[in-house]
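hey m, so remember when u said the tokens were messed up on ur end? i reran from scratch. heres the input so u can diff it against urs
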Amino acid sequence: MVAQITSIVIEHLSKVWIELVLALIAAIIYFTISAKQSASPKQSENNAGFSQATAKLAVQREGGENDQELTASQLALKAMRQGKVADAIVLVHRSPDCIRRVPFDVACRFLNAVATTPKLIGMTTELRSFRGKISSQALEATITNMLKSQDVASCRQLHKLSSIMSIPKTESACEALARAYANDTIALRVLVEEAGTPLAVAFAEAALEACVQLKEKRLQSEILEKVSSADMEYIRGVVQRLTGTDDVLADAKSPKAIVKDTAGLDLLTETVRQQDRDSSNAPKEIAMRANDIRSCGKNGDLKGAIKIFERLGPQANSSLIINSLLDACVECKDMPKAIEYFNQPELNAVTDVISYNTMMKGHLASGQEAAAKKLLADLPKHGLTPTRTSYHGLLNARVNAGDFNGAWKLVTEMQASGISPNCVTCSILMKGKMNSASDASRVLALIDTMDQPMDEVLFPSVVEVCIRTGKLDLLSRQTEKFLKQGASASLTAPTYGSMIKAYGHARDAKRVWHLWSQMLFHNVQPTSVTLGCMVEALVANGRTSEAWQLVQDMWKDESTRPLVNTVIYSSILKGFSRTKETEKVMALYEEMCEHKIQANTITYNTILNAFAQGGAMHRVPALLEDMKAASPPVEPDIVTYSTIVKGFCNAGNLDRALKVLDDMKSVGKHAPDEVMYNSLLAGCAKEHRADDALQLLNDMKTYNVAPSNYTLSMLVKLMGRCRRINQAFTMLEDISKEYGLKINIQVYTCLIQGCFNAGQASKAVSLFEKILQEGLTPDSMTYTVLVRGCVQGGLLDKAAELARSAYGRGPMSSKGTSPGLNANCLEEVVSALGETSAEGKELMAELGSFKPASMNNGGGKGNGKGNGKGGYSRQSQHDAAPWRQQWA
């Protein structure tokens, strides 16, 4: 029994002993590793990664640590979480963890934070410091997450960030961006241009799907040009699935599918055609190697292209191979290498016109135009005939240099060589932004000689040039010609909008309506911008009611109802406001409310201006209540207050206008400006309230509003009416000195009138002499005021003398053109002298053949401030200019 117990104890002790030994080994290993970690704490910290940082932040949130114990990376993560992204950028940049590479998790959060804070994209300098520090995988992960949450705006920001911070985009990132840009043609085009050649299949498929949705056939063709020949069969299936046809694949190889506005793309078309012909005659292996060489060139891998070329050995002596190699050299901007191969005797023997055109393209790209010209001259020496492309490169260079004479000389040489200009030729000439009608006419004449119809690329350029040079008669003819070609489907709504706008400015309302009807007839769907151009054209030509009817018709059709918006209604409101049709303004406003089209500040300001112009200021309080009740409320701006002030002043209610000024000051959001003060001064002049005007002048100083000549003219007018002309002289002298303001002829004219009103005719004449001494040029109103004042003061001889001076025949004539007198002024002088008197007959015989001056003459520039912020033009201060009115 004892022996049995002993045996059991020994057996158990052996097991415990083994466990003790294992525990001792584990302890030794643990302390060894701990010693190494304590010996290199920085390395441990770097290897800890994002998970430890997150854990530490969690402890800190629980109150376990304070900010002083956190690393820069941890503080950066905390700043991102709190929305302090600008601080986070600085912290990440300073973090020891991010000296060479920002950890993956930190980079993802960093990109996410910057992308969702749009203003930070402007911190370009700070963001560039992260170049090479953020991995492509972090960018890809962030873009993918943004796409999942359908945050397209942030995807676009990440695309921009990848450029700023030089983060390479993976194939998956490009694919995700392509899917994000399903509604953004410009961004998609940029993405396709950035992608390498050949395109990754997944990216090409995503980009093609977006193109189909955007109806971008041209970009579709460009994508297909960049797809590898090995992937073409799969892509063909994709195109058939998306469109139900593979016609676009044929279009991709046709010159019509390539944009023709640059000479380089013209060469691409010629090269593709030649390559297709050569490939059909060359062995399959040679054709494949030529394609590989071109692909290397497009990818910037010239060494790879040369390696393929050298492996071919004697087989490389073909035009297809040499042209591919030259193209690769040009693509990689290595012209010395291109020249080296081009001049090799065995290769030069197989060169063709494509070879020469490629070399010319390279020389032109490097600024060696003389070398390109020499190659063009050498073509006939080698038995080769120049093509259009041979000339187009040089033509493009001359146009870009602004040398139209040189460009036309090349066109003449083309024609002398039997090469007729085509759409590309004319498009290059149109690029020159010609502004003279003669140049435009010359290009349009060239278009008429083309042996091919105008295409959809050239026609918009023709429209632009005709509009810019004012040749609308030629535009009408070219439009009709283009449409007769059966190209109506190629005309877009923006092109129609541009033409409608141009004919609207030319006041040709008949043509405007013709274009609109033509657009609808050819089933071109208008856009809101096109509709806006149409409405503006009608309103500008006094056809506001027609514009309103058009908008009502568009609203009735559910397909065009979304085109009607606040801006379009505001344009019609502006038209009725100009004609002071207040009832129609209110009917239009009620229609907006009925259709639930939100009025904005511009809309309300336009309506208020209609009240001010039409004398309906009693409607103002109700409209202001509508502004407050709007959702969200519409806040009045400085234009709102100025318009109300102008309306009350026009209505002869200066006290209400001053109350509006006080209310605006009390709110404190807007400070009064010169336009508002000038309206108030006009109101003071209308009611003969000189003391209030002087108080307003002091108020202008308080708000640092400098008076203009228009301000001075209002003050002089007021002081003249109040018989305080001496005070007006003093005021003008003080203000002109204080503000360094040069008094203009209109202010002096008002002062002259004030002198006559105060019975100081001699002072008025002396003031006129001072004007001439200062070198100012009197206008017709100045002479009219002087002549009439002298007649009323009994100074008939002086009146006759000044009348002669107005027509450049008296001793006091001013230099320059003779402005003359306003209507009936000369008759008044003759009548005062006596029509049968010798003096009267002599004056009439001398000046009677002259026409009266136009009432538009003599209008000087007032305050120089034109349009305000509202939907109407802050009307020129000259609408009621004091020198254009009879003085009371």
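this time it looks ok to me. The radius of gyration is 40 Å. if urs says something different then somethings off w ur setup not the seq
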